[in-house]
């Protein structure tokens, strides 16, 4: 016996299936690797690459698509038309001037701010509700300028900040102490650059305060000298990588995919992203990285982690350095 045919009212439409969409602006070393990392981790069901170089962006998308069989199921598209970013849930902006050996991140500011001022209004026209994450360097100045250009609230637009730097810090601590890096909780704060500082006073290893860490199985303790060496390595590691291979891409892409997941999965994860501060230890009206809560609505809060007097002065010095640069470029 046949089943009765169901009918749909004229004004009733099928419910659209909601899938997560990530748009990556810039198909260079960082952007293409970030798309790859997001796909490999299954961060989103739809990944869009946008770049003004049509041949490059289409080739990157095609290459990534050919590997979908070996990843969590997803769709990849690439285009030189900004419409490819339409309705994205999160937009990762990696496009910018390329850092050359010997250049500081701040040296890139003028060219990158000019580029962002051109592309950001176009992105807002097709994806006004997206969460925007600035990745391109100098990320703190670029994020500050992007907020001014876009008019978006600081919850909706922020920078990748020192998420990568904190990963470098944790790796070096873990390596020295002989523990899994996942059991190290420590942050780099301030500028994503030369004036950043490690927050030693709040760092822990498996719940043990780092400043109380003793030698285990013959490993050397974390003396002040060792901590200074680790901090120096964190700050200068990008320069070493750029000198050796021209760009950093793997670790920053993985850091970016972690931010993507925190937003799309509404994780309320604590990450040291770069946000506009308002009276954070006396610091206001500049974008700096401090431990912040990241979820579906962007950055919803900054944690007032305990800081030593030295760390407070270091953070304030970092803020002053960035404000001077911001004034120099009129933002």
From TrEMBL:
A UniProt-annotated Pfam family: Ldh_1_C
Family in the record: Belongs to the LDH/MDH superfamily. LDH family.
PANTHER family on file: L-2-HYDROXYCARBOXYLATE DEHYDROGENASE (NAD(P)(+)) (PTHR43128), L-LACTATE DEHYDROGENASE (PTHR43128:SF16)
Annotated beta-D-fructose 1,6-bisphosphate binding sites: 170, 185
Residues annotated as catalytic: 192 (proton acceptor)
Annotated positions binding substrate: 99, 105, 137-140, 165-168, 248
Alphabetized InterPro entries for the sequence: L-lactate/malate_DH, L-lactate_DH, L-lactate_DH_AS, Lactate/malate_DH_C, Lactate/malate_DH_N, Lactate_DH/Glyco_Ohase_4_C, NAD(P)-bd_dom_sf
Gene for this chain: ldh
Enzyme class, spelled out: oxidoreductase
A Gene Ontology cellular-component term: cytoplasm
Species, as recorded: Sanguibacter keddieii (strain ATCC 51767 / DSM 10542 / NCFB 3025 / ST-74)
GO molecular function, one term: L-lactate dehydrogenase (NAD+) activity
Chief location of this protein within or outside the cell: cytoplasm
Keywords, in A-Z order: Allosteric enzyme, Cytoplasm, NAD, Oxidoreductase, Phosphoprotein
Domain Lactate/malate dehydrogenase N-terminal as annotated: residue spans: 20-159
SUPFAM superfamilies on file: LDH C-terminal domain-like, NAD(P)-binding Rossmann-fold domains
Gene Ontology terms: biological process: glycolytic process; lactate metabolic process
Residues engaged in binding NAD(+): 26-31, 51, 56, 96-97, 135-137, 160
Function: Catalyzes the conversion of lactate to pyruvate.
Name listed for the protein in its UniProt record: L-lactate dehydrogenase
Record's subunit section: Homotetramer.
Gene3D superfamilies: Lactate dehydrogenase/glycoside hydrolase, family 4, C-terminal (3.90.110.10), NAD(P)-binding Rossmann-like Domain (3.40.50.720)
Pathway given in the UniProt record: Fermentation; pyruvate fermentation to lactate; (S)-lactate from pyruvate: step 1/1
The reaction(s) this protein catalyses: (S)-lactate + NAD(+) = pyruvate + NADH + H(+)
Modified residues (Phosphotyrosine): 239
Activation/inhibition comment: Allosterically activated by fructose 1,6-bisphosphate (FBP).
Cellular location(s): Cytoplasm
CDD domains in the cross-refs: LDH_2
